[in-house]
């Protein structure tokens, strides 16, 4: 692509994928820890 | 409240993407369409500096006995981790912009090098946070490390003025005090900075919540281990 749209697409994709992955990782780990602490409290 | 903030962040990011990808013009001296990468590169770099600034400030608050609170240490760690993610993105996006504009993916230029150093310094800081120690010991070690690492932030920021190598000088803040951007490009850049700052704040809130749970878990495991150790020790019977 002569006007460099390919670099733009890669850049925006990298940022979006990184942000979503990081957010999903935080949320997933938070949920897992909360559940395990609650299970321990219940017995 | 947090959900409302998350929704507002998402909307602001979406509007920024529309402006950055469709409304703003291309620029011949900035890699034609590649100029659109600057609406990611500048805000991610800003957030990285902000994140490490917050880490330094909260570390200082932890070190001062009068303001010491375990939460400062957790915020410092959360902010540093988010900062490392954004610094990594700054380097990757900058490299993607550099190839079509400068003709190279990487150059040992002052700004690029000091930013790479920043990335590795804070990776080291995150590794230090994972070493085994009491909360107090770890807090002290990490707070001092965070303050030392922060020295590279102003060096990186001012490197384009001090050394004037390949990386261009500031578009908004520069020694000439001349804003080199206007119209839809200036609006989009400001919007992008706001959007990414909101994203940073949201991610730190979430990461802080996770850090608190991890801390609780660690304390519980330690208490359990101590209880097991005490139970396993033979009971000494005093001679009659």
Proportion of residues in extended strands of chain B: under 5%
Shape of chain A: rod-shaped
First-residue to last-residue Cα separation of chain B: 67 Å
Largest sheet of chain A: none
Architecture blueprint of SSEs:
The complex is a heterodimer of chains A (43) and B (240).
Chain A: H1 5-42
Chain B: H1 2-23, H2 38-63, H3 70-102, H4 110-129, H5 135-149, H6 152-162, H7 183-232
Helix pairs in contact in B: 1-7, 2-3, 2-5, 2-7, 3-4, 3-7, 4-5, 4-6
Structure description:
The complex is a heterodimer of chains A (43) and B (240). With 43 residues, chain A is mainly α. Chain A has one helix at residues 5-42. In chain A, 12% of the residues are buried. Chain B is mainly α and 240 residues long. Chain B has one domain (2-232). Chain B is 74% helix and 0% strand. Chain B is built from seven helices and no strands. Chain B has helices spanning 2-23, 38-63, 70-102, 110-129, 135-149, 152-162, 183-232. In chain B, helix 1 (2-23) packs antiparallel against helix 7 (183-232). The longest helix of chain B is centred in the last third of the chain and has 50 residues, at 183-232. In chain B, 38% of the residues are buried. The model of chain B has no long low-confidence stretch (mean pLDDT 92). At the A-B interface, helix 1 of A face helix 3 and helix 7 of B.
Compact summary:
The complex is a heterodimer of chains A (43) and B (240). Chain A is mainly α.
List keywords for this structure.
heterodimer, A: 43 residues, mainly alpha, B: 240 residues, 74% helix, elongated
